[in-house]
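User: Hi! I'm working on a homework problem where we have to compare a predicted structure to a textbook description. Could you give me the structure for the chain below?
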Amino acid sequence: MRSDPAPHAAAAEPSRILLVRLREIGDVVFTTPAIRAIRARLPRAHVAYVVEPAAAPVVARNPCLDEVIVAPRAHLAADLALGRRLRAGRYDLAIDFHGGPRASLLTWLSGAPVRVGYDVPGRAWMYTRRVARPRELRPRHAVENQWDLIEAAGLGAGGEAPRYSTEMPVDPAAAAAIERRLLAEDIGPSARIVVVHVSAGNPFRRWPPQAFAALAAELVATQADVHLFATSGPSERGGAARVVEAARARVPVPAGRRIHLADELSLAELRALIERASLFVGGDSGPMHIASTSRVPIVGLYGPTLPVRSRPWRNAALATESVEAGDLPCRPCDQRVCAPGDFRCLTGISVEAVAEAARRALARSGSQVA
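Assistant: Happy to help. Predicted structure tokens:
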């Protein structure tokens, strides 16, 4: 709910807009429907986006942006210099989709006469229009939260949110690199590719490696045309290799050759591989939301988080499955301490349930596994 008055109906529409969203990949993906909505409302405006390096590929090719400003994490002096650059941009409107200390500072330093952000204690003064953000974990999707800010900026209404899907265009150079890799591994165009992302930046969202290994073995053992690629983030490369090794040990050698390790992909290459895939399986993390920008069937695994808050935001006609451990008194949680101590929200997700979800997702897309 907006806590400040709406802009006057006669106010001039902004011609230069600054958007700020720092930190996580999935969170940046969740802002792309809002970017599309802003462009639809203001087709001639100059729209710039401030993002950190890890998530920059998400918006690097976004057709609704005129400028992407990459802000590496650095010291205060560097942020002040960036602030001077933003102020020189003479933006009419700045929207902070993040609300963290650094994002709010950069928004304030931009000097935009209209600055929209969340009513966060200690930082609300940096904005000219503030939006209430309840502290409790609400059963409301993160994309819908963005619309509170869009509405406060006078650029749309909350009911418009479902009109827009997440998006991340495929980089042609990355797509060419993936095709070369598939050709080198003798994977033809008729082969079905399954991408299984076996890591998560947040350890509270990691399904056990042995479960991923069992799932990978089952998928390649039951279909001769399936090639499975295990992907991971930079910090989990060793874990991905162990998953692949354990999965190969479960199946005959010919099937094991169709289990591939792909832990060195860039974010753009991951997006290109997903575009080529018949199925994506992974936890509630950035790569799953990268997958949501494609038409690939998705099986998402939810431990401490809830699908209602972070499911893939896209056309409901696309195959999207959510697998959970069920109702637990500790779900959802703040992902700082596991109260029961055994991560039961993750260990309670069975391989059989995920495999069945994969079959349903592929069946809806016109394919079938097992």
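For your comparison, note the following. Residues 5-10 have pLDDT under 50 and may be disordered. Residues 52 and 73 are 7 Å apart (CA to CA). Good luck with the assignment!
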